[in-house]
Here is the input.
Amino acid sequence: MTNTIVVVGAGVSGLTSALLLSKSKSNTVTVIAKHMPGDYDIEYASPWAGANFLPMSTREDSRWERRTWPEIKRLAEQVPEAGIHFQTSRIFRREKDMEGPSCPTDPMFDRDPWFQSVLPDYRELNTAEIPNGYETGCEFTSVCINTAMYLQWLVGQCLLNGVVFKRVIITHINDAKSFSHTSKPAPIVINATGLGSLRLAGVQDKSMAPSRGQLVLVRNELHPMFTTSGTEDGITEIFYTMQRPAGGGTILGGTYDVGNWESVPDPNVALRIMRRIVDMCPEIANGKGIDGLDVVRHAVGLRPYRKSGVRVEKEKLEDGTWVVHNYGHAGWGYQGSYGCAEGVVELVNEIRRENGENFHDEPKLS
Here is the structure.
């Protein structure tokens, strides 16, 4: 029996969900979205991401990231055209930031993090490796993703599996079922609309809010990538850097400003971002300070922050249509993408069994 599915949203969560669903020959998948890979719009978060793998979940809620890492690692090792490469990552901690929550990325800075048994080469740094102003730190092998390449690669993999893409704007989640490329309405809809779930009728999740992220993309190179537990510039400003593969440039960040919808880069924030990086790593600019940074662009993205955490669950609408939700990832959409998509497949299969279908599809990441 053919199972018709419409995925709403073409960010990393929607595309990964579509990819895993399309691995089953019994699923017919259509992706509909207002924005597609190649677009740069403030409503479309995925292209603006760094993106890397720095675990942000608590130990208790770490399934999505734990399940994603093996596949991201495989792609970095075996699929160079996906635009993912390994990078050594360092985390620097300040004792004063450990006294209370500073932003939703806090579990990353735990002194005994759950991910030390997941990410390769984990070790605590010695005193000589800690920059001035920080007390402790750790190092491990992570990845950085060239989002422009990777989103297009996901589209290509979906197309190979027969997924059809349509540019569509919907105002109610129930409208999605009628946009299947088949001749019949889809009984299952995947809601991967990210921040759009705040206003999309039929969902209207009031726990959603933007988490504004401002960054600077430069041509300068810097290794390894790093992030810190806090800055002297206020709770909304964070300090990190990573180098994208395949000439994607180096990301300098940033901000984590929940509730801020402003889409235009703030020049004062940009100046602070650049000052922080050249103060800690003058070699990035050959000792020339900010003037030594070769800026590609200043950018702002709105992370889909959800106060109550990511939503991966099923819901039955009044007309009998099933919706499987996959949104609210805040700043960890890429590093939770395969785990959450695996959860989507499991929920779709639960629905099919409840409908009396006899099959043995299971999510397969590779």
